[in-house]
Design brief:
Length: 365
């Protein structure tokens, strides 16, 4: 068997892979049903940027899972490990985009059906038993991403780290203290937003393996510190990239993460260390430019649907290098809407029924 590494960088990831139902600020616009969740977004973006992306989740064959698979397939995401046993309904998140009185955008998330009030399907981590056959493949990757902690996520991260992969941990919320401590002991890059964590004690202290710590600050940019020069640097600040078309802030952190990974992790941990502080800044700035571009669209990855999949990667690199304006994205096609997937607890309406969240399982592809 040849041990020649693949020409495309590879990333495995586990965490929230969900179906986002995006309700536009325009009440006449249909709901968009797109693959989402932090893990789902980051790996979809990286696939568009030329990576082989392997999300690991427990999606079954329900309508929402089918829609998630179809959307990820569109961007070239590898689907081999999306149906780990025991399978479950895809998590569903409703994102409603609103306008303040001054016209500025804001959004809110809901995990409950607006019709029947039932809780929508939520996140369920893959089991330790289910990932046993995956661990062998996880030893041949350049990066591993996790945003929701579980025993299986940590086992996969450990296997990936031992093979020389960069482990990226992006905590979404406070988790079990023991799991959190273990995650910090294996992660090389820790990234979080200031609206969720004011700090993460222990990330860069003592014998921690963490080499880069990043705290995003919304419109104020981000701050970061690192140990790429073997000593702990002071906190340093990067202003946010300029944007002239603020439509929705959702998902911009995921774009920043994907841009960073695409730049600094494509040759594994050794590549990250070799790039050093200068390469880290380049990766952060690339991620910030992608995040700024994303601000011009509704939904966590709305801009992707205005560009043909095969053109998106080259376009994003050209845009980030200044060859295209952030304010004037390539308009090769109109964004497609996939509106008719909703709460599994709701009774199925007649086929001719109309509504922003009506269910029609025949329209999931």
């Amino acid at each position: 068997m040849s041990l020649t590494p693949p020409s495309r960088p590879r990333i495995f990831g586990t965490g929230l892979v969900a179906l986002d139902l995006v309700l536009s600020a325009d009440p006449e616009a249909p709901v968009r049903a797109w693959a989402g969740g932090t893990c789902g977004n980051v790996l979809a973006i990286l696939a568009a940027l030329g990576w082989d992306s392997y999300p690991i989740a427990r999606l079954n064959g329900d309508a929402a899972s089918q829609r998630v698979r179809a959307d990820l397939r569109r961007w070239g995401v590898q689907l081999e490990y999306l149906g780990c046993s025991p399978t479950a309904n895809a998590p569903i998140v409703i994102q409603q985009i609103l306008r303040a009185r001054d016209g500025s955008p804001r959004h809110r998330f809901s995990w409950a059906c607006p019709h029947c009030g039932s809780w929508l399907p939520g996140f369920k981590p893959v089991t330790a038993k289910a990932i046993e056959p995956i661990t062998t493949h996880a030893q041949r990757v350049d990066a591993f991403f996790m945003d929701r902690l579980s025993r299986s996520a940590l086992l996969l991260a450990e296997h990936a780290a031992k093979s020389g992969a960069v482990v990226i941990f992006e905590p979404s919320a406070k988790a079990d203290a023991k799991l959190f401590s273990e995650a910090l002991s294996v992660a090389h890059v820790v990234k979080y937003s200031d609206d969720r964590f004011s700090e993460i004690p222990g990330a860069m202290h003592g014998s921690s393996t963490t080499l880069v710590e990043i705290q995003t600050l919304g419109a104020s940019g981000l701050r970061y510190r690192h140990k790429l020069n073997r000593t702990l640097s002071p906190w340093m600040h990067l202003d946010a990239a300029a944007t002239h078309n603020l439509v929705d802030t959702c998902g911009s952190g995921d774009w920043c993460t994907a841009g960073l990974i695409a730049t600094v992790a494509r040759h594994g941990l050794g590549g990250l260390i070799k790039l050093g502080a200068e390469g880290l800044v380049e990766g952060l700035q690339f991620g910030q430019k992608l995040a700024a571009w994303n601000l011009g669209f509704e939904g966590a990855r709305g801009g992707m649907y205005t560009v043909e999949p095969e053109k998106l990667g080259p376009y994003l690199h050209a845009m980030a290098s200044g060859q295209h304006s952030v304010a004037n994205p390539l308009k090769s096609r109109r964004a497609r809407a996939h509106a008719r997937i909703a709460c599994p607890a709701c009774p199925q309406p007649p086929r001719k029924a109309r509504g922003r969240l009506s269910q029609d399982k025949s329209n999931t592809a």
